[in-house]
Amino acid sequence: MNFFNPHLLRLKRSDSAFARFLKRVLFRFYYPALPPLPRLLMPGLRCLYHFHFLTISVFRWILTVFYRNPLFQSKCASFGRGVYIGGLPYVTGPVEIHMGNGSGLGEKVSILSGRILDRPQLVLKEHAGVGTNAIITVNREVILEEHVTISWDCRISDSDGHPREADLRAAGKPPDAKDIRPVRICRHAWIGNGCYIMKGVTIGEGAIIGANSVVISNIPPYSLALGNPAEVILRNFGRPSTARKAQPAPPGQAAE
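Now predict its structure.
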């Protein structure tokens, strides 16, 4: 490839007629295009389009039911009913995984654990869900309570993965046990895409974390927090509709 690089660079910088022609040819080669097709062909091609994705969906269903799900169950300490997985999660280390009824993991989820403490645990309670491309690092305990939603590209970790002290980091030592602190995300909380949830954090019931936030401290229940580091923007936010109280009737107006 080194032989071609100087020639490709010279072609890219050249403005001659031949160079422009050659660049058009290469562009069409890498980005082929077709003229508009006759409308008569559209119904058949549309059926083929849907058949294409239907075939992929059926193949993925078979792969999940007969291959991915059984293999992942073998890595779990407990496994409830109705657990769904979008792909085969990557699991490393001695972590104990507990999947509650109706819980689930999206595609390309990684669950990482070092051999620092005995029996680190990842617990997904009923109907807790983790989105695509999430990474969860568990060296002590990470708990996702009922109906917690973790969006895509999130990172959750109960440790820094290394000691604080520079000399110990250089020596490749593991973090001290006191610096590994559990993470708990309480029921009905929502974690937006791209968030980082750091060690020792508890996110309260029903709280919402805005996208791309870094959470380094506890978040109170039913609040909206965002930023780096995440700060509470609104309180008493997103309470269940069943918790709303009837507004009192205005003075002089009889209540219905």
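The helical segments are 5-13, 17-30, 42-75, 166-170.
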